[in-house]
Amino acid sequence: MDSKSQSPRNNYHVGNLSAQLLSAARTMLEAVGSTKLSVRALCSGLGVTPTAAYYHFSNRTDLLAQLATQGYLELAQVLDKEAAALPMEDKIRGFCLTYLNFARDNPALYQLMFGPELALENMPDTLREARQLAFSKLEEMVADLLKQPINNPDVRSAALASWSYIHGLTALLQHKVLQRPAEVSDQRLIERTLLGFEVLFKAHAESIRSM
Predict the structure, then answer these.
(1) Could you say which DSSP state residue 116 is in?
(2) DSSP 8-state code for residue 11
(3) Which of 7-21, 85-99, 196-210 is the least confident region?
(4) Angle at which helices 107-114 and 17-32 cross, to 10°
(5) Is the pLDDT of residue 4 over 50?
(6) pLDDT at residue 16, as a whole number
(7) What is the pTM of this model?
(8) Alpha-carbon distance 123 to 149, whole Å?
(9) Distance spanning both ends of the chain, measured CA to CA
């Protein structure tokens, strides 16, 4: 029999099935979105039974949680890599641009990571830890900028504000709520919006001094 005519069932190794399921689920996720991701269809495509899949994932939610965990770990890795290569004055813009690019390259995964399907009260520890790891990369950058220890309350507040900003901007772009001219690059948009914060905070500080 020609190797090309072999069924998918003949082409996987049991010890590698978990990785193959995650890889196939990642592809299906980006194609149809999390709400239409079907374990039965996933198994059919790999030529295995749902029972084999549920040996590695207790249920569909567990599979989605592992995908989201994978996403947060990848986000943490790319943020860490990009931030380390940037001079201090470019770190905030670079962090925001890297974050935005990750969301654009992985739109369905990003929606799953921050969407309502994985409720906080039922979130597995591995997913919670991966999410915190991604956030810690922003805290590390902010701590460096403020020259404060990472556990300083100001670092936590500034990091949360920064994540709220870039997550909000990303959501506006993903859902096409924010329209922009084609000639305006992501970097330019980030620079403009960050400048807007600078103008706002300057006006706020002046109003306080005048009281």
Answers:
(1) T
(2) G
(3) 7-21
(4) 100
(5) no
(6) 83
(7) 0.85
(8) 29
(9) 86
